[in-house]
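Sample intake sheet
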Amino acid sequence: MLDTHLGPPGARPEGRPGEAAALGTAAPDLAPAQVHALVARLYGIDGIVKPLAGERDQNCAVEAADGSRYVVKISNPSEPTPLVDFQIAALEHVARTSPGLAVPRVVRTLDGHACDTVALAEGVRTTVRMLTYLEGIQIRETQRTATQRVAMGKGLAELDLALQGFTHPAAVHDLLWNVSAAHRLTVQLDSLTDRSRRTLAQSFMTRFTHHVLPRLSSLRAQVIHNDYHLYNVLVAPDDQARITGIIDFGDMLHAPLVGEVATAAAFHMAGSADPFEGPAQFVEAYQAVLPLTEPELDIVADLMATRQLITVLISEWRALRYPENRAYIMRHNPAAWEALSQMADLSRNDARDRLLNPARNGTSS
C-alpha cells in the first residue's frame, strides 16, 4: 500500500522512509456518511459534515445542531502515531502556556482520549482526532497590507515563544518540507523537464548546500510550526489585520528557528512590485518580538529562497502522482518559480540586505 517513490526508479531522498511515505500515500477518502457516523460514535456529535482541503490527511468540518463547529482529521495511514501525539501535545502545550493565542483546541472523545483509531479499506487502521474550528477568513482571500504583515510577523514570533521549551520524542523527524534538509531533494532536480527551470533550481540547491547547510548545526533550534502561510492564518472579516486563528500544525518539527522565519517570509514575496517588500515587513515585525541572531540573519534570505526551491520540487512531483489533487498541491508552485527567477540575479549579500533593511526599500513599517 505504501508508495515511497520520490523520483526516477530507485531514487528516493535520503532519510527514513516513513516521512516519504506520508507524501507518497494518498489521503484517506471516507464518505461524508462514514465521517458522520464516526464523529457520532466517538464524540457524541450529530453534525453536518463538509470536506476541507488537505495534502496528506482527510479533513472535514463538522457543524453541530447548536452551531458549534469542529474539524475532524483522519490521518494518512502512513503517518506514524507518535507524530499525531506530537501535534496534539504541542497544541495542548500552547493552550497552557499562552492561552490567548488563537490556535485550535483538542477535543476529547467520549472516553476522554485525545485521539482514536478508525479502520480504512482492507483493514488498514489510522488515527482520528478532533479540533475546535477557528472562525475567520484565510489571509489569501484578503488584500495584503503592511499592517497585516506586521500582525503576521508578531503572531508567529509569539507562537514560537509559546513553543520554546516544548519537547516530545517525535519532534525530531523526517519532513521533506523542512528547509534545513533541502539537500535530500537533490535527486528531484533531474525530474524537471524544462532545462532552464532545472538550471535555476540547481543554482539555488548549490547555494544551499555550500553556504547554508554547513552552518545550520550551530544555530538555535526548537519546535516550530513550519507552515505559517496565507492559507493557515485566519483574520477577522471586519479587521483583516487582526489574527483570529493559526491552523494546520501538521508540518511541525524540531528544527532551526531561522527556518521558521524564512519559510513564513517566503510567502510574502508575491503581490508587490518589489518582491522583498512584504518579506522585509514581516521579518522586521517578527524581530520586534523575537530577534534573530547575527548568524541567523546572515542566512535567512538564503533559506527564504530554499523554501521556494523545495516548493517547486515537491509540488511538481506530487502533482504528477496525484492529478486528482493537482489544484491544491500546485497552489504555491507558480509564485515559487517567480520568486526564484526574481532572486536569481542577486548575490547572497544583496538578497540579505534587501530583506533586512526595509527602509532602504521604502518598506519600513
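Comment: The chain has eleven helices and eleven strands. Residues 1-21 have pLDDT under 50 and may be disordered.
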